[in-house]
Amino acid sequence: MSVMKRVSLIFKSKANRALDRMEDPRETLDYSYQRQLEMLTQVRRGVADVATSRKRVELQMNSLRQNQNRLEGQAKQALGAGREDLAREALSRRSALQSQLTDLENQYHSLQADEEKLTVASQRLQAKVEAFRMQKETIKATYTAAEAQSRIGEAVSGISEEMGDVGMAVQRAQDKTAQMQARAGALDELMASGALDDVTGTPRDDIQAELDSMRSGPDIELELQRLRGELGGGSTQAIEGGAAASDGAATSDGAATPDGAARPAAAEQPQAGEGA
Amino acid sequence: MIVRILGEGQLQVDDSASTELNSLDAVLERAVNSGDEAAFRSALVALLDRIRALGTPLAADSLEPSDSILPRADADLDEVRSMLTDEGYIPG
Q1: CA-to-CA dists, residue B47 to B50, B52, B89, angstroms
Q2: ipTM of the predicted structure?
Q3: Which of A82, A127, A206, A242 is 20 to 30 A from A21 via CA?
Q4: Which residues in A lie closer than 8 A to residue B66 (C-beta atoms)?
Q5: How much is the pTM?
């Protein structure tokens, strides 16, 4: 038998089983309506789940893009400082992030499509549930149990088919969302654990550290020179005394006495007490 | 006749199209039986495309059951096989 007929027969037998369950066919109407309301809730929850998943993927995409931009900035900075090796490293890390980003983009589009389809399905089901509700009231008010039989059969099998269709769509979306949440969770964990730091280039990554040290390098040299000038080429003893004098600069002499050495230790104690 | 494409909704298709649709359906059935994934995909897409081209969507609040039901376009071969055999497959 053809595919079209076989699938539709399976749906019909499902609807018939629902019809056979009740003694009074009018009870079938209420039972079916309850199931429809449940399915509506389920499909709306499905839409919300997919939307949540899509937003999470979006956040991860943004964070990967930021990392890419930073790596590009670093590459420029390194190139400006004549460090082609460092620029090359930054660019290669930037391109390594691209495959992850492409993967997320695919997930994003797929979730977006699912969300749209489920939203349409939920609107369609809602229209049918409302039509069913009105028909149910009419049938209950107008017909006896025996008379109602055939009319109930039509209404129930029509909506039962829709429920089967929507039910499959929701189930599929939920399976997929669960899978994607697991992958997104794994990526979040990797980012949080720092395992991806080498790739994503967090603010304290090694490229940045080297760029920072290049920039601060000349300044430190200048500072050292200035300090040497201030000391005026004094003896080593004076340098040792100078280190301690920063603490006790106000005291005229004896900066390196046991008194002066005890002061910082005493000052530490109340701090420790505060912390405890 | 009314045809449902799963995941898309129901369409009203003129009965005069049934010969053409049945022959496309027969190609699909052969592909399902042979297990040839590529043949299955192209047969399914061909049939669905034809139904979409010929049919007009049914009103959303219609409660009419369909005469024929077809799998969604991206359903895989195993899914369709289990749909044709497994009784408990359809929720709702």
Answers
A1: 5, 9, 23
A2: 0.86
A3: A127
A4: 8, 11, 161
A5: 0.70
